[in-house]
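pasting for the record
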Amino acid sequence: MAPMATTSNTRKALVLLLLALLPLSTVSSRSGPSSHRSSHGKPPKHSPPRGSPSPPPPAPAPTTAALVRATCNSTTYPDLCVSALSADPSSATADVRGLSAIAVSAAAANASGGAATAAALANSMTNATAAAQAPSSSAAAGDATVQALLRTCATKYGEARDALAAARESIAAQDYDSASVHVSAAGEYPQVCRVLFQRQRPGTYPAELAAREVALRQLCTVSLDIITILSNSS
């Protein structure tokens, strides 16, 4: 029996030697479930790879007030522009083309007021001369000259009003080059009035007309600026 005991002991020694030589991971896989599996025997879940970020939402369309402000900020006189456009209720639903027409209308209203002012001044001088008792010949001649200048001013402001009306028609027809020409001409007409006074009756240019001239020139500049924006975007 001694040889059999020796053989058994030899086999046990070989088994122990093989177990000692095997990697620990191999022994663990045989002794129990894998550590990479869940308690239910299912493989772990992996989150899906993240896709590309979604595009940002489109910017909201500007409100009417924002459109007026944005448009006027591109003009030479932003505050005057906002005041003139906001005074017209139709600016609440207008696009840039509509705003350009509103600006031209504001300038036309100023030109009409200038014509009426010049005519009223001329008429007041006529009434004052008629009421005066035996005016001197020099005073009468001076009054007649000033009256003639005032009537010329009324005509020039009327021509400015007509040019601005033509500009509105050109804007409606999307003929922005012609609209610019008409507005530019409208801004020049009142200057003729001032120059005539400077040459023939220096120092007598009425303050009312001087204020009208400045306002009309600025309104025409605003109108031209908006027409330029409109032309560049079309």
